[in-house]
Each structure stands twice: as C-alpha cells, then as structure tokens.
Amino acid sequence: MSAYLTDLDVRLLTVLQDGLPLAVRPYARVAAQLGIGEDEVLERLAVLQENGTLSRFGVVVSHRELGYRANAMVVWDVPGERADDCGRRLAGLPFVTLSYRRPRRLPAWPYNLFAMIHGKDRRQVLDEVEIATREAGLAGCDRAVLFSLRCFKQRGARYGSGARPARTLGEAAA
After folding, report:
1. pTM of structure
2. Whole-angstrom Cα distance, residue 92 to residue 87?
3. Residues 135-163: tens digit of each pLDDT
4. pLDDT tens digit string along 55-111?
5. Which residues in the chain are classed under CATH 3.30.70.920?
6. What is the pLDDT of residue 157?
7. How far is 16 from 172, CA to CA, in rounded Å?
8. SS3 of residue 68 by DSSP
9. Which residue in 116, 117, 153, 156 has the most C-beta neighbors within 10 A?
10. Do 9 and 53 meet the contact criterion of CB atoms below 8 Å apart?
11. Where does CATH 1.10.10 sit in the chain?
C-alpha cells in the first residue's frame, strides 16, 4: 500500500532533508519558508508519521562541534537470552547515546550488543565503559572499545531518487 504525498508534503520533506533550523521555534521557521502556519507543519508531520512515510524524526548532533572528540562504539559478545535486558540497561544510562543489538558475523565478529558513548576525552569514555559494563550486567562478556578516528558528515534521510521526494511510497521503492 502506498501513501500519496500532496504537493505540500513533497515541499515539506524537501525542506526537512537538510534538517531543522537551529532556532527557538524551528517549525515556525519551516512554516514561514513554506508560506503556511506552524500548526499545519506539525499536522502534516503527524500525518506523515501516521501513514508510514516518516518512520522516525530525530536530531543529528554534531558531537565534535560540541567538544565531544572521544567518541567510542563499545561492543560486547552477550549470550542471546541476556542481550535485550542488557541493552535496555545500557540505554538507561545517561552517558549512552545509542544502544542496539545486531547479529554476530562469525568467525570475524562475535559481538552482538552495541552502545555509543561520546566524551570530551578518552579517559572519561573508558571510565564510563567500565560503569556501563558493571551497570548493564556485562562483566565477563568479551568486549571491544572502538574509538572514532575520523568524522564523517552526518545528515538526515534523503527521499526519492532525485532532489525531490517521490509522490508515493511505491515510487520511492522503485
């Protein structure tokens, strides 16, 4: 089933592809750009989420610009029956910005639980890795701490095959 996008939806998604403006009222800025009211922007976004056009809507943070230069993906090899519980516990820690489970890729990659920790220096991050390991019940599980060496440009999703979003979800898949 495909959801039809109105002209306004296409224009809205096109504007949002580059992110929300950094402003006290970002939706008001988007609305002004589109020549509509802020309430209409919020209503259209709710409809786009409801019909599945947008599966999620979130922030892409430039950690390095905020002074967080010691960024590490921590990976653990957790018994399958414990992974969900440990992942939930990791996600509840204030310094863990992302936690998720992925399949192992044996024999080279035995890890199935991932967490991202951003810090201002490596010592802070390594201390937080120890806390996370203890608090999430991961003591005794093999792990690796993978610090970022390069920073790649982060951006939100792009819609459709060209500069503009596809008119229907079916078009986007084609």
Report:
1. 0.62
2. 9
3. 999 999 999 999 998 877 666 666 654 44
4. 877 766 777 778 888 999 999 999 999 999 999 999 999 999 999 999 999 999 999
5. 64-147
6. 65
7. 17
8. coil
9. 117
10. yes
11. 1-59
C-alpha 32 chain-centroid distance? 27
- Asked if residue 136 lies in contact with residue 89, where contact means CB atoms within 8 angstroms, the answer is yes
CA neighbours closer than 13 Å in the CB half-sphere of residue 134: 6
Distance CA 128, CA 52 (A): 37
Mean pLDDT along residues 12-33: 91
Mean of pLDDT values over 4-14: 92
Query: How far is CA 128 from its chain centroid?
Result: 21
Structural contact between residues 68 and 119, judged by C-beta atoms closer than 8 angstroms: yes
Question: Tell me, what's the pLDDT at 158?
Answer: 67
Q: How far is CA 29 from the centre of its chain?
A: 23
Architecture of the domain defined by 1-59: Orthogonal Bundle (1.10)
70-76 β-sheet, strand order: 96-101, 113-119, 70-76, 143-147
> Can you tell me the distance from the alpha carbon of 46 to that of 143, in angstroms, rounded to the nearest whole number?
40
- Tell me the pLDDT of the chain averaged across its residues: 87
113 is written with which tokens?
A: 């639980």
What's the topology of domain 64-147? Alpha-Beta Plaits (3.30.70)
- Report whether pLDDT(173) > 50: no
